[in-house]
């Protein structure tokens, strides 16, 4: 494996010099394999794309992939330009304005955003557990730190809804650094919070309090963080059949022999319900690419082209749970790859 050497400077001049060394066969600071960090949810898709990319080329070095979580990946991605920084970061949510601004401040000024597909934030349980159906309101009332602005007292699912089983609330989920956690808070927790008209009104009168009330998850043992590896949650559910877990639909599909999805608002987390938007936890998946690195590190454009072309129904990525983006979004992603279109951050939050 190529030696990893740190750069003293990460300017474009240094990056160009590194490429000169790589193309001439010198050692120095050159790097000729793609460096990818980021989301644990996108990681299996990126890994499979990398395998296909290697199989289709000659004398291509395998990309180096690290599962760091969306937040951790963007933090490293935005540290600067140069071969000691990642070329691509995977993200299970869109880049935040604060992250984009950090990139800009550190010289990462030209960022290509590519939506590679759709995933669903699935709540799941062991196949040997009791069959439970939930609503977004049930989930919010059970897991919010201050449900509807009140003290959290729920100990059992039946405490939030008498129609639910008399089972202790026990949910395994991702940490705050995870894009899955961000999406869960926005798509499930906030949706449940907004079922109360007073909470919807709060959004207009006090946005900070609204976000705290609707997004903050209780920090007791009813919700237990399991790190960035969703496979840990699958293992926990197998050992604790009365518990539930929060992770991406793709992991649920990959482990269908161990877990099953929980219906939310009368919609099961399936390929079709997520693709149509009927399931409330549908979320886009992204990769972010440094345009400045494309001509310096070999193979980046070929890799991202393969990723976009594989993001269709029936593809090898679909077989492990990636849901195709709508046609107009796929066309936009293809254009971003073909023309190396960068984002200006004006519509980021």
Q: How many distinct helices? A: 15
What is the CATH architecture term of the largest domain? 3-Layer(aba) Sandwich
How many DSSP E strands?
9
First-residue to last-residue Cα separation: 39 Å
Helix percentage: 25-40%
Strand content: 5-15%
- Provide the number of structural domains: 2
CATH topology description of the largest domain: D-Maltodextrin-Binding Protein, domain 2
Any overview of this molecule?
The structure is a single chain. By secondary structure, the chain is α/β, with parallel strands linked by helices. It has two domains: 12-117 and 284-339, Periplasmic binding protein-like II (D-Maltodextrin-Binding Protein, domain 2); 120-282, 3-Layer(aba) Sandwich (D-Maltodextrin-Binding Protein, domain 2). Helix content is 39%, strand content 14%. It contains 15 helices and nine strands. Strands 1, 2, 3, 4, 5, 6, 7, 8 and 9 form a nine-stranded mixed β-sheet that branches. Strand 1 (35-38), helix 2 (43-55) and strand 2 form a beta-alpha-beta unit. Helix 2 (43-55) packs across helix 14 (300-309). The chain is globular, with a radius of gyration of 21 Å.
From the structure above, extract its key features.
349 residues; alpha/beta; disordered N terminus; D-Maltodextrin-Binding Protein, domain 2; 9 strands; 2 domains; globular
List the helices and strands and how they pair.
Blueprint (H helix, E strand, L loop, with lengths): L11 H13 L10 E4 L4 H13 L8 E2 L4 H8 L10 E4 L5 H9 L5 E16 L9 H8 L13 H4 L10 E3 L5 H15 L3 H9 L1 H9 L7 E3 L4 H10 L4 E5 H6 L4 E3 L9 H6 L5 E9 H4 L5 H10 L17 H13 L10
Parallel strand pairs: 1-2, 1-3, 5-6, 5-7
Antiparallel strand pairs: 3-9, 4-7, 4-8, 4-9
Helix pairs in contact: 2-14, 5-7, 7-9, 8-9, 14-15
